[in-house]
């Protein structure tokens, strides 16, 4: 008998991203506002009681299992129990681009953690799962906790937030950006003054921005061109370290009108901002 569930692995946007300092270990201190989108990958988890291994249904080309966040998440969770666990085969329907700043890998890891916690009936709480997630990446905890949040530290100190659930046009220029490269650039702003949570919702563009944007636009002309085009229709912003950029719209139809006029060679999608993760909505339905 095989138990199988398919769960969403949603994208996130950094509605703003401020770099407020640098720690002795080299990591950057951030302030950011995370919001989920009702769009992303799907993860299918199938238990195999006759086996004990953790494997991908289709290995990802060029990515060893030891480097794959999905496999690493499953193995880290398995270490939390001393009992014998059934094996699992993990399938992924990939929609989110790699190197896009949408948190695809972190989201995949979080969906794996929560999904296997459910299937394996481990009963771990969100605090324990978020702690495991942080060992995999700074963005994993927000996906584990599943609520829009004001993030501080390296992004792991989270305060639940409720930004407007608007519609977004997300564009992916034809380039992939390495986060480490951006954070190591000498020209990166690293001293933005800290803000309280409240100003994050006041819409003051001069106070809330993405501090990585200037460096990314200088290094990646494709991003710069896409931002210039999208800015013709309203404020355009980078998410994370890119390469994806987004514009906010009050309705789906308004976003789709702009989407239909996008330049050739640019991919992307229209999605709704949501403050409760689609993953958590689905898991609630399964309870």
Detailed description of the structure:
With 287 residues, this protein is of the alpha+beta class. The protein has one domain (1-287): 2-Layer Sandwich (Ribosomal Protein S5, domain 2). The protein is built from nine helices and ten strands. The chain has helices spanning 69-78, 104-119, 126-136, 140-145, 179-183, 213-219, 221-230, 252-259, 278-286, and strands spanning 4-22, 28-48, 54-56, 87-93, 149-153, 157-160, 167-172, 236-238, 245-249, 267-274. Strands 1, 2, 3, 4, 5, 6, 7, 8, 9 and 10 form a ten-stranded mixed sheet that branches. Strand 5 and strand 6 (157-160) form a beta hairpin. The longest helix has 16 residues, at 104-119. The protein is globular. The two termini are 20 Å apart.
Features:
287 residues, alpha+beta, Ribosomal Protein S5, domain 2, ten-stranded mixed sheet, 9 helices, globular
CATH topology: Ribosomal Protein S5, domain 2
**What best-fitting shape do the alpha-carbon axes yield?**
globular
Q: Report how far the terminal alpha carbons are from each other.
A: 20 Å
Fraction in helix: 25-40%
Structural class, please?
A: alpha+beta
* Biggest beta sheet attributes: 10 strands, mixed
Proportion of residues in extended strands: 25-35%
Radius of gyration: 19 Å
Nearest-integer average pLDDT: 92
Helical stretch tally: 9
Listing every helix as H and every strand as E from the N terminus to the C terminus, the arrangement reads EEEHEHHHEEEHHHEEHEH
Number of discrete domains: 1
Task: Tell how many strands the DSSP assignment holds.
Answer: 10
Poorly predicted spans: none
- Assigned CATH class: Alpha Beta
CATH architecture type? 2-Layer Sandwich
């Amino acid at each position: 008998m095989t138990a199988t569930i398919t769960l969403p692995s949603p994208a996130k946007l950094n509605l703003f991203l401020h770099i407020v300092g640098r720690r002795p270990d080299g990591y950057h201190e951030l302030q950011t506002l995370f919001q989920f989108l009702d769009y992303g990958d799907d993860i299918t988890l199938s238990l195999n009681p006759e086996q004990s291994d953790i494997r991908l249904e289709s290995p990802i080309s060029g990515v060893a299992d030891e480097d794959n966040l999905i496999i690493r998440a499953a193995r880290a969770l398995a270490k939390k129990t001393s009992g014998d666990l059934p094996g699992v085969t993990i399938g992924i329907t990939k929609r989110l681009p790699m190197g896009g700043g949408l948190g695809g890998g972190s989201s995949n890891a979080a969906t794996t953690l929560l999904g296997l916690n459910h299937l394996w009936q481990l009963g771990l709480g969100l605090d324990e799962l978020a702690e495991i997630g942080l060992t995999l990446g700074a963005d994993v905890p927000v996906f584990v906790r599943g609520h829009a949040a004001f993030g501080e530290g390296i992004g792991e100190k989270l305060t639940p937030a409720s930004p407007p659930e608007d519609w977004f046009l997300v564009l992916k220029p034809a380039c992939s950006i390495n986060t480490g490269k951006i954070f190591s650039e000498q020209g990166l702003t690293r001293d933005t003054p800290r803000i309280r949570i409240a100003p994050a919702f006041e819409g003051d563009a001069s106070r809330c921005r993405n501090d990585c944007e200037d460096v990314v636009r200088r290094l990646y002309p494709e991003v710069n061109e896409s931002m210039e085009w999208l800015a013709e229709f309203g404020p355009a912003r980078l998410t994370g370290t890119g390469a994806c950029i987004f514009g906010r719209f009050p309705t789906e139809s308004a976003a789709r009108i702009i989407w239909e006029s996008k330049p050739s060679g640019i991919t992307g999608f229209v999605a709704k901002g949501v403050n409760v993760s689609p993953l958590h909505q689905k898991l609630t339905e399964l309870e």
